[in-house]
Amino acid sequence: MFVVVGEALVDLVGQRGSRTLVAHPGGSPANVALGLARLGDQVTLMTRLGRDSFGELVSAHLKASGVRVEAGPDAGARTSLAVASLAAGVASYDFRIEWDIGDLAPLPVESRCVHTGSLATALAPGAARVTKLLERERERGRVTISYDPNVRPALLGTPEEARPAIEHLVSLSDVVKVSDEDLRWLYPDRRDEDVAEAWLALGAPLVVVTRGGKGVFAVTAHLELDLPATPIDLVDTVGAGDSFTAGLLDGLGRADLLGGVRRDALARIDESSLISVLDEASLIASITCSRPGADPPTWAEVETARAARPSTGQSIPR
Questions:
Q1: Which of 205, 140, 143 lies closest to 176 in space, CA to CA?
Q2: Where residue 198 sits, what CATH number does that domain have?
Q3: Is residue 317 predicted with pLDDT exceeding 50?
Q4: Which domain holds residue 68?
């Protein structure tokens, strides 16, 4: 079972300068939970939602795809909003968000993986509680820890201020997915590959960098992979990275590489297995990009799309 911890909110999406905004359920962790559920995985989302119309919209959307929603303390809570302005299909965000998830109990014994990231690991007071959960679960050693910084510069101060907390979370994690856009903001003078290597040295067995049209770069202690981008019919990029993360975790689960007892096996993942997992995650993200909003595919849709697309990749021995 997957547990995802983090924000669920409503994306108000429209073209830049438009007076018309369309409400879509969103939030990076919520999108990951949705993507996992649609791929057939059992998943619980631990989040914070208000008892308002937006909260009802988000909760109904997630539950319809099979996500178990734990909405957190609701006294005075309002469901958070993100205004997504689109230009040439690419989204920029303005946030109206509250993040106070309350105390987090230990994960259920059947959990194999916990995923978090984005605003849930950056905004007080909830971020400190999420970090404590990961520290506790790393010490227990029972689950795979997955992390996507998914940075929002407008809410993080300067890169120098944001880096220590992000690097600490990387050190607690087993799987780290990060975009090249995030890395350019965090480390403007360093190459993606160099940062990925440095994060590997912090303790994460697998670091994956998504590069948009340039494809995907991944590194373990024994392997580097450079995969080309998947061709897409772009509508917008809302939720694409989260769909990739869901596909990545689902693929690792199907390869029996999740759970604390599989940590060494994850670190030793072979080339063909990693190519297969990354290739499918990229395909899943491309399907999301082909339709509006954070609308990840079902497993049946993935199988249909996969039949029309060969898997390719280039590896660099270590």
A1: 205
A2: 3.40.1190.20
A3: no
A4: 2-308
Domain presence at residue 294 = yes
Cβ(220)–Cβ(263) below 8 Å: no
Beta strands in the chain (DSSP E): 2-5, 9-15, 22-26, 43-46, 68-70, 80-87, 90-96, 113-117, 144-148, 175-179, 206-210, 216-219, 223-227, 314-317
How far apart are the C-alpha atoms of 213 and 88, rounded to whole Å?
14
- For the chain, how many structural domains are there in total? 1
Please indicate, yes or no, if residue 164 is contained in any of the structural domains.
Answer: yes
Q: Say if residues 105 and 35 touch (Cβ distance below 8 Å).
A: no
Is 317 among the domain residues?
no
Residue 182 domain flag: yes
Rounded Cα distance, 311 and 297, in Å: 19
Average pLDDT along the chain: 90
Give the CB-side neighbour count of residue 230, counting CA atoms within 13 A.
26
Determine phi and psi for 266, rounding to 5 degrees.
-60, -45
Check if the beta carbon of residue 174 is closer than 8 Å to that of residue 265: no
Give the sign of the dihedral formed by CA 52, CA 58, CA 64, CA 69.
negative
Q: How far is the C-alpha of 216 from the C-alpha of 249, rounded, in Å?
A: 15
Average the pLDDT over 11-18 and give the result: 83
pLDDT tens digit sequence for 227-253: 998 887 888 777 889 999 999 999 999
Catalytic residues: 242
Q: What DSSP assignment string belongs to 149-166?
A: ----GGGT--HHHHHHHH
Q: Looking at the predicted structure, is the pLDDT value of residue 312 above 60?
A: no
Write the pLDDT tens digit of every residue in 247-273. 999 999 999 999 999 999 999 999 999
The whole-number pLDDT of residue 84 equals 78
